[in-house]
C-alpha cells in the first residue's frame, strides 16, 4: 500500500456520482432513500458519514461497500466502475478493495483470533505459511500478538474490535469501511478504537470511511459528510459546532 503519512493524495478511492437508491414499498410503488449523492474520497482521507437514524447511512454504506448497487448514478471504487456488477462480481471487489469493521465485530466465535484475521486471505491464493505470517503481522500491529490462539469470546469488546481491525487490514485493502465501530463499546474502549483509527490513518495513510450518528465520534476524522433524509447537507471539515449541521 502506498504510504501517504496521513496526507490526502490525489489517488481516488471512492467516486459517487448522483447516486440514487429506491426500495419497493409494500403497497406498491417505491420509497426513495438516497437522492443524488455525489462525493469523492481520495487515498489518505479519514471521513465520517454522519446523520440521524433513518437518514440513509447504511444504505449509502452498502453501496460504498459493494454490498448493494444503486438505482441510478455511477459508483467507481479505485477507478473501477462497480455500478452494475452481479452479486458474485461484487463479492470479488469487496474482498480485493475493502476491509470491513462492524458494530458487532462479526468474528467467528469458534475460530481462533489468528484464524479470524486470516479470513480475508482465503481467496488470495497465498500459501498457508504466508497467510499465517501476514495475520501475525496484523495482530502485532493492533497489539494482540500474544492472543492469537484465544477465542473471540475470551476477549473484551475493545480487543474483539482490534481483532476485527487486524482482519480488515490483513487483505491490504484500499479502504477501511467502519459502520458504527464503537457502537457496542463503552466510551473508554470506544475512545481507544477511535485513537487507533486515527493512528492508522495518520501514520500509515490508510483511507477510512466511518459511519456514525454521533458528532463526538466524527471529531476523530478530518472530514464530515452529513446526510439528512437521503440528501447530503454538509461536506467539509469537521465543524466545531454541531449546529452548522442542522437542516
Ligand atoms: P440509517 O442507517 O441512517 O439509519 P438506513 O439507510 O438504514 O438509515 O435507512 C434509510 C431508509 O431506508 C429508512 O426509511 C429505511 O426504512 C429504508 N430502507 C433501508 N433499507 C431498506 C430495504 N432493504 N428495503 C426497504 N426499505 C429500506
Ligand atoms: Mg444504519
Descriptors for this entry?
single chain, alpha/beta, Rossmann fold, 4-stranded antiparallel sheet, 7 helices, 10 strands, binds adenosine-5'-diphosphate
What's this model, at a glance?
Helices cover 30% and strands 27% of the residues.
What is the H-and-E element order? EEEHEEHEHHHEHEHEE
Bound molecule types: adenosine-5'-diphosphate, magnesium ion
Number of domains: 1
- Could you say what the CATH architecture is? 3-Layer(aba) Sandwich
Radius of gyration (CA) equals 18 Å
Roughly what is the average pLDDT, rounded to an integer?
A: 92
- Number of helical runs? 7
> What characteristic shape results from the CA principal axes?
globular
CATH class: Alpha Beta
Q: What is the CATH topology assignment? A: Rossmann fold
The CATH homologous superfamily is called P-loop containing nucleotide triphosphate hydrolases
How can the largest sheet be summarized?
6 strands, mixed
The main sheet orders its strands as 6-7-8-3-9-10
How many angstroms does the end-to-end distance come to? 39 Å
